[in-house]
Structure formats: structure tokens, C-alpha cells
């Protein structure tokens, strides 16, 4: 073997073989590079130059002229107009979406490109969600927001620049994103969302100028930071079967590892989520809406919601200080990175849902059966009280109704009493019962004969959360007996229950 390798002829032959292989590889690599270069060149040539002229975008996607459009704006608008009218190489789009295509597959990407998403609220969270969806391939985006870009917006907005200050946020997004994804169609709605305009703003996407071709909305993103509007949006989507995901409070948060997706009924450690959940439960919506929220706890040295100064209160009605009636007036401390985390998490969820990609989030609490059981307990307890007050008559309870719903039960147990007994703090075998003994009849009669309706005058503020054993003792000794609350409970327990009942009373107006 040594003699062969040392033979000059063998060495020369080996060298020739290796050289030929290297040369062949170099030639093939050069050819591939040339092919790729020619392909890239062809794709680039399909993009119109800055001096090409064309008509403007359809008026459907505009809320007004851009302030002093520069040459880049004009070029981008021309390109967008051509792309949205089919004069754009689809291969170029697929090349831009190549990484998503590999991840989601051809079928998944096709679904995404054919989808229509509505984004309500285009501030920090909404703008990042919008940018991510456009870059990922969503071809129809309806943007809803009444506000304008301000200097303070620039610490968290996805695309706004100093040149955009004063521009409507919806228009700012369209202005900047057409330069990245010119094929995306934008439907801009410069208005505040509320229940009165829900049908219009969440209706189908009009595909033609005649308004005959209408396709349904595939997903709705809630990025609103106003409770009233947020609740109205989520209730509408829930009632109409519109897929929706809601972004909760990014303000005062700083830990991106605590941001997660979960059901509205299972979210915790988030003030906006808690307030929204309470209102929704009173409207009968206790689960079924995914939300993005942070489990980060508030603590010493951390940012908190800034209250209005006494000077502002002295100026007059606090509500008059807001941008719009019933809109928030307090200042939200926001770390600029956190709305982006929330926005991308929202967009990620929408992309996975639209494409059918597997999702394995933390499961929500399955407590609906518990709420139904507690409602049945409340019903039986009210029948006992009515019989007692009416002298033991059983006929008065036939057909008796209680004005309490499973949503009310969910609100009282989970929100007002924090999922614990008011007496001992025990979180298991919970029920609701009247706190105070009625001083007069609780029976309400309407109508006569077969048309008579019988109900209890029970209110949310009348109920208290206890374990079943505690409630049995309470009913026997307080509601049906002669003892006072002070005979069974400490002053601390009584004051805590009364505070919870005042909280329930304040929320009764939202039922």
C-alpha cells in the first residue's frame, strides 16, 4: 500500500481526479448562482420604478390624502395599486413569504393569503399585530381606530415615524405597510367602535365596487383599551360566532416571559382582564374567548397606573378630560417593548388558527357545571324562604323563578368573592345563599290565573359565597332561625362580606 501511494503516477492521477471534481463543483455552483441571479433580477424587474405613473389606490382603502406625500409615498401607492389589481408577479410574493410557506405548508399559506382579519384598535398592540399579519401573508386587513399618532405613540407603535404624527393611526399603518406588502388590501375605518356600529364595522368584506361580492370576516382582533368598547366588541363576536382574540393590559407590565394566551375565564393577575371578565360574566359570557394577558404581579418599585392629580379634578367633570365621552383619562405607564410582545402573540394566535396549525395552550377552568349546580342551590334556597314567609304553603313555590343566571353565579363566585368562602376562605364545595334574613315577603307576583308569573326579588347584592356546610348552618340559624349575623361571624367577616356586596351592587347595572 505504501509503495502505491508513493508512486508518482498514482499521485498524479489522484490529483487530477480531485481537481476535476473541484472544477465541476465550481462550475455547477457558478451556474446555480447565475440562475438565482437571473431569477432575482427578473423578480426585481417586475417592481415598477419610482417614475412610473398610475392611478391612486381605490377610495375604499383611504380616509383622506396623505399630508404632503413624498416620492416614496407616491411610488408605494402606485405599486400597491398595481399589486392589488393583479399586475404583480405571484412568484415574487411567494419568495417574500418563503419561510412561512415552508413552515405552514402550501395549503396553510394559501388559507392565510385568502383570509380577512379585522383589527379594532391600532395603537401599540394593534399596530404590531397588523404589521405581523401583513408580513405573514394576510391579504385583507380592516383597521378600526378613531385616534391619531402622537409623539408619545412613537415609543410603542410598530411603524409610525415623526412624519406620521397627527396622521390617523389606521392611515399610518397603511402608508407604511404598502411599502412592505403592496398586495395587501386595507379597509380603513376612522371611527370609535361601539355596539351601535358593530354590524357595519364587523360585516363582510366587499370584494367589488358594486358591493355584490361579500366575503365573511375570518378573525377579529380586539386591541381596545376602553372597557365599554371592549366588552361590546367581545359580546358581539361571542353572540355572532365571530372568531376573536382579545389583548388585555400591556400597561405597567415588564416581564415578557409572563405573557400568555388563555381563556377569558381563566386569566388572572391582570386588571383589564379582570374588569372585562366581570362585565362579560354579567352578560352571560363566562368562557370561550381567548385572551392575551400577563401573569406578572405588581410589586415594590414597579410601575403602576397613575391617578389623576387633584388639580385635574378641580377643573370640572373628570369625564370631560377624555379624548371621547366615556373614554379613559388616566395615564398608562407603558414600557415600549411590551405592547409589541402582546401584539405579536395575538398575531401568532390568529395565524395558527387560520392555517389550522396545532395549538396546545393551557386549558381553561371547566366550571360551567359548578355554576349550574350553584344556581340550582339558589333556586331551592329561595323556595324554602318563600314557603317560610308564606306560612309553609307549598303552592306558592310552584313555577317560582329566580332572576339569577349562570353568568351572575360565575361573577359572584369568581369575581366578587374571588372563588373562596367569605367565612373561612375555603375554595371547595362552594354555594351562594342569602346573607340577611328577609324582613318581608320575597315573592313577586305578576298577572293572574294561568298567566300568573311568580318570582323572587333576589338581587346579586343579597348573596354571599360559602361552603355548602357553612351555608346549611347559616340558613338554619340566620335565615330560618332567630340569631343575628353578629352571633355567628366576626366583625372582620361581616365587613368583608358587605364590601363584596357593594362591589356586586356596583356591577349590577351592567347585567
From TrEMBL:
Protein topology in the membrane: Multi-pass membrane protein
Key word Nucleotide-binding present: yes
Region Disordered, residue ranges: 39-73
Domain THIF-type NAD/FAD binding fold: 99-362
Gene Ontology cellular-component annotations: mitochondrial outer membrane
Main location: mitochondrion
Keywords: ATP-binding, Ligase, Membrane, Mitochondrion, Mitochondrion outer membrane, Nucleotide-binding, Transmembrane, Transmembrane helix
Top-level taxon: Eukaryota
UniProt GO molecular function: ATP binding; tRNA threonylcarbamoyladenosine dehydratase; ubiquitin-like modifier activating enzyme activity
One Gene Ontology biological process: cyclic threonylcarbamoyladenosine biosynthetic process
Subcellular location field: Mitochondrion outer membrane
InterPro entries named among the record's database cross-references: ThiF/MoeB/HesA (IPR045886), ThiF_NAD_FAD-bd (IPR000594), Ubiquitin-activating_enz (IPR035985)
UniProt KW ATP-binding keyword: yes
Function: Catalyzes the ATP-dependent dehydration of threonylcarbamoyladenosine at position 37 (t(6)A37) to form cyclic t(6)A37 (ct(6)A37) in tRNAs that read codons beginning with adenine.
Similarity annotation: Belongs to the HesA/MoeB/ThiF family.
Annotated protein name in UniProt: THIF-type NAD/FAD binding fold domain-containing protein
Taxonomic source organism: Canariomyces notabilis
